[in-house]
Amino acid sequence: xxxxxxxxxxDHTLFRKAMVNLLRSFHRVQEVKDAENGKELLTLIKxxxxxxxxxxxxxxxxxxxxxxxxxxxxxxxxxxxxLTMHDSNKYILHMMExxxxxxxxxxxxxxxxxxxxxxxVEKDFYHNDLVAAVLRKNVTERKSGQRPQFRLAELTERxxxxxxxxxxxxxxxxxxxxxxxxxxxVRNHRVNMMDKIGVNNTVGLVxxxxxxxxxx
Length: 216
Known about the structure:
- Residues 5-121 form the Response regulatory domain.
- This protein is globular.
- By secondary structure, it is an alpha/beta fold.
- Helix 4 links the parallel strand 4 and strand 5 (102-105).
- It is 55% helix and 13% strand.
- It has a 5-stranded parallel β-sheet, sandwiched between helices.
- The longest helix is centred in the last third of the chain and has 15 residues, at 183-197.
- It has helices at 13-25, 38-47, 64-74, 89-98, 110-123, 129-141, 149-152, 157-167, 172-179, 183-197, 202-211, and strands at 4-9, 29-35, 52-56, 79-84, 102-105.
């Protein structure tokens, strides 16, 4: 079973060091490094890239938003989990559109953090209650005429079926097994959907699924 490298950036030393110890206790986390701000994190990643970066939103020198922007631009393979004290809908929505893979409140239970780490690597996204609430609220605030039905019409029935399963957090392998398709076929369908919808990651697909009414 593959083990992962996880880096964390947070300016509160006591919290950060406690998080490092917690991360090291996770069965499938192999290596943990920590930084006290975004700039320091990016320097660490320049020398050795982790599988996952856990980023606090509010930090001095370089905050979480700027850090994520730089990470997505320079290290697109690194999965990003945002840690925040505030469940601001607009902020989370903006960060999702940017390409962040998961959002956790700082009072999250350790087992959810562990689950999120594995999910972002294996499924490209962690679809928790916080994200679902933000996406549902975004849909209710949009006028019905703004629903992207024209893009929905471009998807085949098979693609819609796969999109629903992506939103249910099934892996590529699990989707393939469920639909009797090869993993490559599922991947191709996912790429085609992203192309048709005009998004570049799984986060964009999930957001679209809510907006189009495929999931609620």
